[in-house]
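Crash report, auto-generated. Payload:
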Amino acid sequence: MLSLDRQRETEIRIDDVSMVFGRKGREVTALSHVSFEVYRSEFVSLLGPSGCGKSTLLRLMADLLEPTSGQITIGEEVPREVRLKRKFGIVFQSPTLFEWRTVKDNIELPMEVLGLKKSEYSAISERLIDMVGLTKFKHHYPWQLSGGMQQRVAIARALSLDPPILLMDEPFSALDEFTKEKLQLDLLDIQRQTKKTIVFVTHSIPEAVFLSDRVIVMSAHPGRVHSILDMEREEGSYEQIRNSTRFHEMTAQVRSCFLIRSS
Amino acid sequence: MSGWLRKGGQSGIIVLWVLGALILWEAAAWYITDIAHVLAPASKLPYLHLVIEALIQHWPTLAEQGAITFGNSITGFLIGTAVGVILAIVMSLSRAVELTLSPYMIASQMVPIIGLAPILYGIIHDPALSRVLMAGYVTFFPVAIHMLRGLQSIRPEQEELMRSYAASVWTTYAKLRLKASLPGLFAGLKLSAPLAITASIIVELMGAPNGIGVLMLSSLYYGSSQVYMFWSTILISVVIGLIWFLLVTLAERLLTPWQPEFRQQGGGER
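Recovered output after restart:
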């Protein structure tokens, strides 16, 4: 998003959040005093090595876990209220499709759970299937699709209730390089069209730099925010962006965050 | 398991398979009787056409007694399935219940059915009920164990996903766990379908007054003159067992078309 006229309206506020797993005497601190904000319609990556608590942080936002201390507010609400109002879609590293459902049925699952009528949601799922380019495969079962196609289904499913927020936990890390690039571009397209707020967990520096408006660099043991970097994104084709000086500068800048720590 | 059932030309393959078995049988009987000149050849392996002749001749008796046995065993199989499914669901809901029940269930399967059948019949003295109970007894365990494994086979992300849709506990169970358990359920059913028939026959061998097992036993006592009758009862049991197994497989195919076994089929089915 080149336009710097972002209104910087806060969508998600993480306020001094800590997370400790395990019982007394064997505690593992996954997150220690983490604070940051995510703005509306912003693409934010949580970047860091394994053990930095980035996935935990995503699960806290999704109300799949509760913080040991600190507070998360999304809009004016706590994650639980947001979840009950189905205001976020979630995409995991594995596509997590239901293998007994076809592509269309998988995408319709959230709407079915919500209690919508088939006549109401059929058009929505058709549109989403077209958007992720799986029109020919809508009656296929997951096992008939490649990993990349399966992840497209998962993205379409996350969008089916048209939530303002998309939470993505390393969604492309299990895909081959070619598929990954294609899906990254598609995701940017989707965000351009839908203006979703996207929180994207990754351990790939180029991926974070390529996709994000801002990168939140995290460090491990215990997990905490190391620095928050603005990516000053430019428009352009994949090659243009990847070959731009800015891209390399940003990549180097992010990488230096990790170098400083290990030296 | 039922690989030869898969393809389009499956009925042709079945016909070939059955024909092959019949020809082999006839050839082996011919060798025993007319080439090797074994003593009392019919009691080892009689000619198939003579067995079929006896089967046609005794058809009214065989059909009547067969109906009793297989009717009871199917009732027992259905009851055992219901019990197995309920046990699996209850155990999937509570780890404590699972830990409490499983030793009993496993112990129950250690009792040899050949010993249990006469005990049970001695207590309740009702042949029909005994057959039903024995068939149910051998059915519930494979069904419960395999279905439970299916119920527990879901991945944490799948549950998290349902949670993110604010799905109720019941919706999550119905749309996720129950669906995921169907392949396991059918694995259990396919194991126990032939067992249920055997269990009912064993009740008859152990004292019940009627049924196909009684015909089996009495034709054994009367020696060579009844040999063809004996083989007819065996043949009928095999055929009924096969039909029952095929019915379960068919149901499996209709209800769980996504399973790997049916994948050569392509995406045509919905």
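Post-recovery validation: Residues 1-5, 266-270 of chain B have pLDDT under 50 and may be disordered.
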